[in-house]
UniProtKB/TrEMBL annotation:
Pfam families: Peptidase_S9 (PF00326). One of its GO terms (molecular function) is carboxylic ester hydrolase activity. InterPro entries: AB_hydrolase_fold, FrsA_esterase, Peptidase_S9_cat, UCP031982_abhydr. Keywords: Hydrolase, Signal. This is Dienelactone hydrolase. GO terms for biological process: proteolysis. Residues 1-20 form the signal peptide. The lineage of its organism: Bacteria, Pseudomonadati, Pseudomonadota, Alphaproteobacteria, Acetobacterales. Residues 98-179 form the Peptidase S9 prolyl oligopeptidase catalytic domain.
């Protein structure tokens, strides 16, 4: 009996995420082919071994990382993150590090044409979905063969990244709703963005990833009103949904509420008192706060760093439960 119990415990342990040994997290920036379109830059955090972490500069951020270190473990769960409009792979660096320490491989593309360096394609949501799918396929099949379990993939999206994730997971937005929404709310973020964009001869082609997601985390989903009843019917996986109560960029009730109603199973819902739209982004270092005060605002009574300790812990808990073998 004791031998049997020992064998069972061994196999159970082998199926769980391999936590980063001694807190060592590996890091690499990769370039992902994207068909005839420009390649996609992506950063990957992962449990590592056999290397010494060193202070690593990631734009305005700094983390103790072991660049290009050997991976620890095989068949690990993968989390892919889609950042908000005009950002980069550094948008959620604290979340990526926390997930990697918990035993996940974390891949974060910098969306080509919609990032801190280049906003020329910010209105092309179809390009975002194609890039997202390309990064998943590359990380699973080519980055480090055998590193990722293709049956244990989760996704996190923030703002425009949440729309990207919803489409990639099988959502079908009704884009005819955008014109009516923007006629009523021309000053809203996406309406101003679309008003300044060059009209396209054809609507952007949205791409669903061929990989099946086991779990989704969505924060402040953009274009939520395009998902009416039945348009998220294929999203039967567990979903964790976050709303900032003081979101002035994507205000109530046009974004989170329609997504929450359209999901076929009730999500794990979190409403964050006092939080604004940008509070889902990593807490700002001093240098970033100087150059981008609008996204680093500290409102009285709300501490972004304290919130992120809870935010990241809740996501690790949710993904660990959802991505068990």
């Amino acid at each position: 009996m004791r031998l049997f119990q020992a064998v069972v415990l061994f196999f159970l342990a082998a199926c769980l995420p391999a936590r980063a040994e001694n807190g060592i997290v590996g890091f690499v920036v990769i370039v992902v082919p994207n068909g005839t379109a420009p390649p996609v830059e992506a950063a990957v955090w992962y449990p590592a071994e056999g290397a010494t972490p060193r202070a690593t500069r990631l734009d305005f951020f700094s983390q103790d990382l072991a660049r290009d270190a050997p991976l620890r473990g095989r068949n690990l769960p993968l989390i892919i993150i889609s950042h908000g409009s005009g950002s980069s792979f550094t948008c959620h660096v604290d979340m990526a590090l926390t997930l990697a320490k918990a035993g996940f491989v974390v891949a974060v593309p910098t969306h080509t044409g919609d990032n801190t360096r280049d906003r020329s394609g910010a209105a092309d949501l179809g390009a975002r979905t194609r890039q997202f799918a390309a990064v998943i396929e590359h990380v699973v099949d080519h980055w480090n063969p055998g590193a990722v379990d293709p049956n244990r993939i989760g996704a996190f999206g923030y703002s425009a990244g949440s729309f990207t994730v919803l489409v990639a997971a099988g959502g079908t937005p009704d884009r005819s709703r955008v014109a009516a929404h923007c006629a009523d709310h021309p000053t809203f973020f996406e309406c101003r963005l679309l008003a300044g964009a060059t009209p396209s001869a054809a609507p952007p082609v949205l791409t669903r990833t061929p990989r099946a997601f086991r779990a989704l985390v969505l924060a402040a989903p953009a274009l939520g009103y395009t998902f009416g009843p039945g348009l998220l019917a294929e999203l039967t996986m567990p979903v964790q949904l976050w709303q900032a109560e003081q979101d002035a960029v994507l205000p109530k009730p046009y974004y989170v509420e329609p997504v929450r109603s359209a999901l076929p199973r009730p999500p794990e819902f979190h409403s964050v008192p006092g939080a604004g739209h940008f509070d889902f982004m990593a807490p700002c270092p001093e240098g970033l706060a100087r150059v981008a005060p609008a996204i680093c605002e500290n409102r009285p009574g709300f501490n972004r760093a304290v919130f992120h300790a809870r935010f990241n812990a809740e996501i690790v808990r949710f993904m660990t439960d959802a991505l068990r073998p």
